[in-house]
Design a protein that fits this description.
Blueprint: E1 4-10, E2 13-18, E3 23-27, E4 34-39, E5 56-62, E6 67-72, E7 79-81
Length: about 90
């Protein structure tokens, strides 16, 4: 996989932003395989995405309170997100 950007180790998995996309790959550190995806299109209003550099690229995890945050270059906000399984 190419264009990995901003890596964060979260509860036994490696989370990696895919540069210039609204996706985060969840990767197994044991074998390097992608075990899931976090899709975040529409998270940031298009009003703030007018510049080409305004892309998702920040991942942070609060292990004490089990909170996941994402942000991006030129983004005016940090978002707390919750992961829910796809059905």
């Amino acid at each position: 996989m190419s264009q990995l950007n901003e890596l964060e180790f979260i509860e036994g998995e490696l989370f990696a932003n895919i540069w210039q996309t609204d996706r985060i790959a969840r990767i197994s550190p044991q074998n390097g395989e992608v075990v899931g995806w976090i899709d975040l299109p529409g998270l940031l209003s298009p009003v703030y995405q007018l510049e080409s550099g305004a892309v998702l690229n920040g991942i942070a995890y609060d292990s004490e309170r089990k909170r996941l945050f994402v942000t991006g270059k030129l983004w005016p906000k940090i978002f707390e997100i919750r992961l829910v399984p796809k059905h």
